[in-house]
């Protein structure tokens, strides 16, 4: 693929991600925010593809756009509120927040831009899934099993907390 | 693939205990779940005893991905002993719960497992997963008080801020990885050269300090701690205060002292600032507090400042002081919080003014509170004095006299608010002079914390030996 | 590797452009007669009663939760399945432990009634 196409694709995905993320924050209807969040996740997945991390891109779509966004949408619909059209309101901190965020962004941009990241690999591995599998099940065995426990704890904890809501109703 | 699995005994036993408790709470009918607290405490105590077999074992697994060494073992023992005490202190609280008794203890052990993995991790990914296991468990435990709006508020605040701090930490880790091109901490030493420090590395370090600084509640990342400490069930608060803090300090030492001693001057400046700010602001804001849990939260911020001086020293002596202080901090903090548990269990109040006349109502509770608070203030001959002595002498040896002076002055300030609690307990008139009865498990925790705090103050050598062994893992000055 | 994605890129562009063209054409050729009834909600010929946004049952959330946990498990399972033959028994045991831990979580969810509809 030529560099030009790559560059165009990169800016398209970046624009989609940033604009969708802005929409998540600025939209007044929380359901719209949740849907835009999915779009932001998809944009990030596109960037992963451009970085030749195809497995991570698939995970991004499967887990984030597929499952996490659903969870957010359910979370929105579970909560009792008056008018859904006015459910994601900004407070008076909007402009100070913008100011702070812009400052942080400027600092990060300046510092990361000046960094010499060293030579980059010419191309990603052909078989990224296979390499991931081997790494995950050999070198990273401790974090791998910890991840299983983490998932179980997350499920257990969420049930303990969410069931509580039901009982107190 | 040859891994010596016997090295992972403590991790596997802790995971087995947590999962076993979960299965047990599924199998045992709800109304018969009485002995879970004692079972948890006994299980953790057995693992604690087994962990002494690993003293002096220094091995790496899978090329430094996971480390079994004296430093990790010291902090594993800390997490386990704190787990035992907290499990015992939880018993009266959990008995009041209508359901989820087994789950509470299971989560408590999962949090312990998170700390154990975190302090043993030799690479950034294991470390992060251990951290998340610990943090997510604490999110749930913080919001465990059912139908209590303060607990729910504390839970949601902790989730939001904790997620934010995790994101910042991950961002920092990603920059560190980008610069060093490795996640193994021991390889950072060779991949990060002192001569060529890139701007991204400095940014990464700042984010790292911010992310872990949140966990140790150092100023300016301490905002969450008073609200979360106040809202969470008190036994959870005490574990959050000691366990989460100790594990994050261990991570600090692993990454900075173990991975980046060559660029010491950069991070020492960061830590010195954090330390001074935490000592000053924590102690000053603790003075006007009227709620014992909030007071202890701000005192915890100040304590984080004292312990950070161990990082500022950047030497083996500093690590020794840090490890020693964290261990005695476990007993002093859990002792003080357990008094608060017993008191609020009997009276329903966490206010300092309601503690007036406690010495007549329950002399043991008043005595333990006094000993623990004075130890935190650093009054000889209690253990806190020895801890501060080690820490401050380590920084003075590095020529950081000003920081030691700040520490000394702020310790004197802290005596004021610690003693005002004592004054209320011993001089105050109780509105209701009826004696307070506390359950046997709480009595046990109180007596253990008091005895250890006094004993280690008079004769610190056993713990000093362990702390020295832990520090000797790092090849510093 | 990226060339393989050219097809997906082309699909993406068609998927975005095609509906735009269709809607544009239909808006050009369709008759534009505004009428009051055209703007009402059509649902089997009945007017909606009360709020259309109601609070959902927590059961939905429970399902979604368990779904997310097992969705993430799939992510771990897939690479293992791809490399299953070459990784051998050791990886098999690891995966067995991994799934066993999650099965305990699933058992918990089941027993606690997270999967019941009531």
What does this entry look like structurally?
The complex is a heterotrimer of chains A (169), B (477) and C (118). Helices cover 76% and strands 0% of the residues of chain A. Chain A has 169 residues and is mostly helical. Chain A folds into 2 domains: 1-88, NADH-ubiquinone/plastoquinone oxidoreductase chain 6, subunit NuoJ (Four Helix Bundle (Hemerythrin (Met), subunit A)), CATH 1.20.120; 125-169. In chain A, helix 1 packs antiparallel against helix 2 (30-50) and helix 2 runs antiparallel to helix 3. Chain B is 75% helix and 1% strand. Chain B has a two-stranded antiparallel sheet with strand order 1-2. With 118 residues, chain C is mainly alpha-helical. Chain C has helices at 6-29, 58-82, 84-111. Chain C has 2 domains: 2-39; 58-111. Chains in contact: A-B, A-C, B-C. At the A-C interface, helix 3, helix 5 and helix 6 of A face helix 2 and helix 3 of C.
Write the layout of secondary structure elements.
The complex is a heterotrimer of chains A (169), B (477) and C (118).
Chain A (H helix, E strand, L loop, with lengths): L2 H24 L3 H21 L3 H25 L15 H21 L13 H10 L3 H27 L2
Chain B lengths: L8 H19 L8 H16 L7 E3 L4 E3 L1 H27 L4 H20 L3 H19 L6 H32 L4 H7 L7 H18 L7 H8 L2 H26 L4 H23 L5 H22 L2 H32 L10 H4 L1 H15 L5 H15 L3 H27 L12 H19 L2 H11 L6
Antiparallel strand pairs in B: 1-2
Chain C lengths: L5 H24 L28 H25 L1 H28 L7
Helix pairs in contact in C: 2-3
């Amino acid at each position: 693929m030529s560099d030009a196409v790559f560059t165009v694709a990169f800016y398209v995905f970046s624009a989609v991600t940033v604009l969708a993320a802005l929409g998540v924050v600025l939209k007044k209807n929380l359901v719209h925010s949740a849907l835009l969040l999915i779009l932001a996740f998809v944009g990030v997945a596109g960037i992963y593809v451009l970085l030749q991390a195809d497995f991570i891109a698939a995970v991004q779509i499967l887990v984030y756009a597929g499952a996490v966004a659903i969870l957010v949408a359910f979370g929105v619909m579970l909560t009792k509120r008056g008018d859904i059209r006015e459910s994601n309101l900004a407070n008076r901190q909007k402009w100070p927040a913008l100011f702070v965020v812009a400052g942080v962004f400027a600092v990060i941009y300046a510092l990361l831009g000046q960094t010499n990241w060293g030579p980059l690999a010419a191309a990603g591995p052909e078989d990224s899934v296979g390499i991931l599998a081997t790494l995950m099940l050999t070198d990273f065995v401790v974090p791998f099993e910890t991840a299983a426990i983490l998932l179980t704890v997350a499920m257990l904890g969420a049930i303990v907390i969410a069931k509580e809501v039901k009982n107190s109703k | 693939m040859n891994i010596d699995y016997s090295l992972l005994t403590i991790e596997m036993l802790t995971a087995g205990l947590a999962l076993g408790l979960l299965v047990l709470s599924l199998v045992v009918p709800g109304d018969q779940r009485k002995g879970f607290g004692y079972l948890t405490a006994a299980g953790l105590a057995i693992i604690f005893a087994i962990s002494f077999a690993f003293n002096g074992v220094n091995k790496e697994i899978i090329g430094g991905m996971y480390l079994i060494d004296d430093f990790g073992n010291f902090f594993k023992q800390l997490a386990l002993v704190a787990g035992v005490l907290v499990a015992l202190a939880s018993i009266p609280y959990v008995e009041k719960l209508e359901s989820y008794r087994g789950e509470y203890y299971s989560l408590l052990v999962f949090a312990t497992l998170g700390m154990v993995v975190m302090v043993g991790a030799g690479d950034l990914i294991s470390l992060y997963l251990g951290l998340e296991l610990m943090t997510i468990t604490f999110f749930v435990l913080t919001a465990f008080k059912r139908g209590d709006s303060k607990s729910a508020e504390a839970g949601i605040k902790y989730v939001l801020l904790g997620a934010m701090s995790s994101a910042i930490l991950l961002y920092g880790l990603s920059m560190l990885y980008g610069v060093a091109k490795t996640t193994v901490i021991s390889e950072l030493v060779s991949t990060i050269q002192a001569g060529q420090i890139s701007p991204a590395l400095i940014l990464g370090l700042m984010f790292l300090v911010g992310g872990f600084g949140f966990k140790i509640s150092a100023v300016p990342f301490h905002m969450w701690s008073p609200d979360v400490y106040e809202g969470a069930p008190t036994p959870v608060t005490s574990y959050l205060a000691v366990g989460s803090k100790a594990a994050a300090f261990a991570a600090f030492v692993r990454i900075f002292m173990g991975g980046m001693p060559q660029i010491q001057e950069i991070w020492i400046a960061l830590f010195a600032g954090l330390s001074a700010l935490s000592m000053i602001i924590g102690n000053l804001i603790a003075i006007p507090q009227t709620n014992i849990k909030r007071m202890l939260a701000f005192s915890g911020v100040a304590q984080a400042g004292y312990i950070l001086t161990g990082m500022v020293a950047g030497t083996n002596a500093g690590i020794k002081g840090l490890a020693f202080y964290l261990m005695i901090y476990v007993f002093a903090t859990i002792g003080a919080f357990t008094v608060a548990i017993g008191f609020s269990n009997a009276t329903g109040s966490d206010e300092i003014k309601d503690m007036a006349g406690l010495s007549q109502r329950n002399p043991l509770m008043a005595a333990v509170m006094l000993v623990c608070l004075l130890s935190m203030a650093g009054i000889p001959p209690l253990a806190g004095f020895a801890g501060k002595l080690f820490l401050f002498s380590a920084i003075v040896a590095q020529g950081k006299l000003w920081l030691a002076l700040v520490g000394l002055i702020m310790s004197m300030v802290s005596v004021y608010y610690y003693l005002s609690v004592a004054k209320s307990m011993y001089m105050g008139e109780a509105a209701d002079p009826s004696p307070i009865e506390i359950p046997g498990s709480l009595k046990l925790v109180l007596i253990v914390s008091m005895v250890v705090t006094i004993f280690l103050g008079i004769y610190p050598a056993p713990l000093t030996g362990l702390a020295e062994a832990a520090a000797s893992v790092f090849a510093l000055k | 590797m990226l060339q393989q994605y050219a097809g997906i890129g082309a699909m993406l562009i068609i998927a975005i452009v095609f509906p735009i063209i269709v809607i544009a054409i239909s808006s050009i050729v369709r008759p534009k007669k505004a009428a009051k009834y055209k703007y009402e909600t059509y649902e089997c010929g009945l007017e909606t009663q009360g709020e259309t946004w109601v609070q959902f049952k927590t059961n939905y959330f429970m399902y979604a939760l368990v779904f997310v946990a097992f969705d993430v498990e799939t992510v771990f399972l897939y690479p293992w399945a791809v490399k299953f033959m070459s990784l051998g028994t050791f990886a098999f045991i690891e995966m067995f432990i991994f799934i066993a831990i999650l099965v305990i979580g699933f058992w918990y969810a089941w027993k606690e009634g997270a999967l019941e509809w009531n």
